[in-house]
Amino acid sequence: MTDPPTAIDLAKDTALTITWADGSVSTYPIAHLRRMSPSAEARELRKGLAENPLAILPSNPRRGGAHDTPLTATDAELVGHYAIRIRFSDGHDTGLYTWEYLRQIDPATTR
Q: Residues 103, 22: contact at Cβ < 8 Å?
């Protein structure tokens, strides 16, 4: 089990920065967090893309077509001592990012 962070900083328009108990720092761009959402819907979408990389991504009816604004985080809340829930400007808010999952998707260590 991953220890909880010692500091969390959410810059809603750019990134989530976490300082871990071991002193390391991870920075997660907002778009990366949204793309890697642990929600069931996002997991299935990633699975489908892995099976067929030419698949067309579904449009999101909550965003306004040509008037889209950049994706941002609109809010975040701690869930117990094990996770954070992030609400995104596209309306998505169903993924719980556990500390362990965040370590796994750290952009500095995964490609």
A: no
Enter the pTM of the model: 0.81
Architecture of domain 7-51+71-104: 2-Layer Sandwich (3.30)
State how far the Cα of 91 lies from the Cα of 48, in Å rounded to an integer. 22
Q: Where are the domains of the chain?
A: 7-51+71-104
Any idea which of 37-41, 62-66, 106-110 has the lowest mean pLDDT?
62-66
Phi, psi of 43 (to 5 degrees): -60, -45
